[in-house]
Amino acid sequence: MTIPVNQVIGIGPKTTDYLKTKRVTTAEGLIKFGVEKLALAPGFNPGRAETVMKAADSLLGNNTSTKKGVAKKTQPKKAAEKNKKKEAAKKDSKKDKKKDKKNKKNKKDKKKNKKDKKGKNK
User: For residues 57 and 31, is the Cβ–Cβ distance under 8 A?
Assistant: First the structure.
């Protein structure tokens, strides 16, 4: 059973026309076309291409994109990097807060020492 590419969720008329120029007219053909090539289509990026491929797989009732060696989504790696940066920023923020607290305490102690010295000198 062949399913036309325009039946795949995420593939509209403009993308259908673009895919026709690449001789992709069916959902099966789209799977073979691959995520990397679909990501180059106007209005697409790797994330959207991956989502459309999953929709095509779902429509076909199988998971051919992983069997055919289609590139895996790179989003988790980017998300992990963002999480690491956030964690580092939190640690830095905590360190800065501790330093600020310590500096405030030192300033208070200095003021107190100055007052004590003035009181003793009188």
Answer: yes
